[in-house]
Prior knowledge:
Elements: H1 8-18, E1 27-28, H2 31-34, E2 41-42, E3 51-58, E4 64-70, E5 77-86, H3 92-96, E6 107-109, E7 114-121, E8 133-136, H4 146-149, E9 168-169, E10 175-177, E11 186-190, E12 194-196, H5 203-209, H6 212-223, E13 231-235, H7 239-250, E14 255-259, H8 263-272, E15 276-278, E16 286-289, E17 298-301, H9 302-310, E18 329-332, H10 353-362, E19 368-371, H11 386-391, E20 395-398, H12 406-418, E21 430-433, H13 437-446, E22 452-455
Parallel strand pairs: 6-10, 13-14, 13-18, 14-15, 18-19, 19-20, 21-22
Antiparallel strand pairs: 1-2, 3-4, 3-6, 4-9, 5-7, 5-11, 5-22, 7-8, 8-12, 9-10, 16-17
Amino acid sequence: MKSSPISRRRALRTAGVAAIGGGAAALLGGGTLAAQGGAPAIASNNQAGRKYKAFVKFNQERPTVVELTARGLTGNLVLLRVEAAQTCYSSVDQVLLNDERTGTGNATIVGHGGVGIVEAVGPQVLSTRVGDRVILNLHDACGRCFNCLHMRSDKCAAGQAGPQQPVANMADGKPVFGRTGAMAELAITTEEYVTPLFTTVSPAEIAMLTCVAGCGLGMTMTNCPVDAASDVVIFGGGPIGLASVMGAKVKGASTIILVEPIPYRRELGMKLGATHVVDPNQFKTRTPIPNAGGTSDHFKDALVDHLREMTKENHDRVWSGAGRNGPHHVIEAVGGDRWKPKTQPQGPDPTGVTVLNQCWELGSSIGSIATCSVGHPSDAFVRIPAAQWADGAKHHLPGTGGGTNDRRDSGRYCRLTETGQINLKALVGKTYPLSQTREAYLECAERDVISTVVLPNT
Ligand SMILES: [Zn+2]
Ligand SMILES: [Zn+2]
């Protein structure tokens, strides 16, 4: 879709609302703004009292669209007008269910990540300006905590540091939280969560980078050392797995095998760079191999055998470089099913745990295995042969965001999109207005489309 710049009239109108609470609004021009559709700047950072709609979950009730009143911008807070936000599958039960497992405790704006135009900043903000198009990251990527300093900003610890501050009030005065909640007309967050992007990529495409595609690209482009001419097996052809396919292609992998039960997702995978696709439902046989003590921790697995055969070396002369016993890299992007697909086939194991075992079994003795998924049953465990785990050389590389550093990588992912090296547009399924956010999550849960994106200001 085409990007839609803020009209001057609209900015004036919102600036007028922004003046509630004492701050006078003024308009500024600027070169950097012209590059982003001429969005005018609002000089005031006093946004207290501004009304806006948001999709809010309160305790365990299903979320609904309600009107909120913004709190004032202080310190390093940033306010953006949200253009697009994708509905991550990991949030579907929070939206669609109303049991105690999904309770939030506080009123919380749903969603994690999005994209929008900055309309106001707090006095301490350095890295972004009014008028910038910014991605609202999944993580803070603060650059200062232990994990960030050790190149793992996907595990940035700053988000958990200190008490969460409310960003708005409900009509009855209840505080509303949600620094990354972008299922709203406005998002109020801290500077560490936003990254300015100087790109022609559309907001809906950029929105895919928050969480899903950023995670998938991170796994094959950063976390897992995919190199030229390598073999990569990717379990799961949702937006994360498909982004991993594209990342593996960019890194020069020669064989990219996508394992996915849903036919249209396999087809999409082939269009986006997979060299082969496999339906796991065709290889469901998993036979326990009894241990000496009568237990069964080892399996003969038809899918693992098939994938190993597909990635077999073309000669067996060990003294001439042979000896690899599996693909160079295995990527897991499956997780546990939170919702049964409406019409599409479900994978062999809805808990997703079998895939984790298969990843370990398939990985070559010195290869890498990257995992990123969530949604497994809380009482599920992966069992790994102790000797292999302790003495083997398989490299397990887990990560919430798949190793992506949002602030470092979002810009380069946009650049790869501009040059046609990756195709984020192919990951954008259906778009919805804010009033139909619940329907968007239901469609995401049912998996008849590759993804759903909410455009809160349309
Ligand atoms: Zn997510
Ligand atoms: Zn950090």
